[in-house]
Amino acid sequence: MEAGVITFINVCAFIFLTGQPVTGLKDVRVTVPIAVTRGDNARLRCHFDLEGDQLYSVKWYFGPREFYRYTPREKPAIKMFPVMMNKGYPSLDIDTFSSNETQVMLKNVSTPFSGRYSCEVSADAPSFHTALVSGEMTVVVVPQSRPVLMGVKPRYRIGDTLRANCTSPGSRPAANLTWVLNDQSVDTRFVRQYRGMQPQADLETSSTTLELPLMNQHFTKKGRLKVRCAASIHNIYWQTTEKSAEEERPRGLVNDVVQHVQYRPDDLESVYDDRDVAGDDVDPTSSSSEWPPCLASPDVRSSPINAHPNRPSNPNCSGRTQTLTSKIL
After folding, report:
1. Could you report the per-residue pLDDT of 144-170, keeping only the tens digit for each?
2. Which value, to the nearest 10 degrees, does the dihedral of the CA atoms of residues 21, 25, 26, 32 take?
3. Beta strands 93-94 and 78-80: pairing type?
4. How many CB atoms lie within 10 A of CB 71?
5. Are 80 and 94 in contact (CB under 8 A)?
6. Dihedral angle of Cα 273, 279, 281, 285, to the nearest 10 degrees
7. pTM
8. Start-end of H helices in the chain
9. CA 298 to CA 319: how far, in whole Å?
10. Gap between the Cα atoms of 101 and 121, Å rounded
11. What is the pLDDT of residues 15-48, one digit of tens each?
């Protein structure tokens, strides 16, 4: 803040003494990674246009603390200042070979260094113009495994409720969990989100439950249901777990298959005497009571019973045929 006040006074004095508008430093902006994985390097860039003025200094801050300064008129031009965080964590580690007036390379970043990074650019005389711009960076601890999907049954009927749970193991920050059914996002009305802490590891666990009444549109034409849980953290982590289920259709009459059974002569020998088989002692004019009862079923179709080649027709079956009907479910 003091540097900004001093610069403002210097600029006002220059305008008052010369009567000329201030030109020089403009278009100052920073490029700070939104997220970087713990243990990776992070490149911070500072862009500016001096419009012909000389550069006085470039300073980088983490929060309110300065950790890097580039002053081209001094030797050495680069100066670093330790920024100590919690016990057990080292200060910011800077790669001086990859750092200069327009960028700073941080090495092996750790989670305490998530936060605001600011670049302050100061022009030399005559303008003494100073500008400060900032960007946020998050150091991410990614989960060590894919999200765990539980509760999906192998079969469902229309009208059943799909109840499932998805959990992403410890990370920082907590992973964002989303549900997808057959490549379509699920309405958040059927979703609940939970967060939990792992104090010893300083990590967060995220969990979500899905309770969705299943309707016809949730299944494919082939009766398939794909349930997917996706876990993501910023633009550096994305993993999914997927399980499939089938539509269980009500059991019922699928085919009414009529089997026309034709008896062989041997099948009827248990009904007739041996002497009847030859046909010698059979009186075709005898009463029907001497014949076995006709075996025709109530479902009479068009397939006649094969008569024995040496036997007259059973008068009890006169004009009737017999079939067996089998219904396969």
Report:
1. 999 999 999 999 999 999 999 999 999
2. -160
3. unpaired
4. 17
5. yes
6. 110
7. 0.64
8. 2-18, 265-268, 274-278
9. 14
10. 9
11. 333 444 455 788 899 999 999 999 999 999 999 9
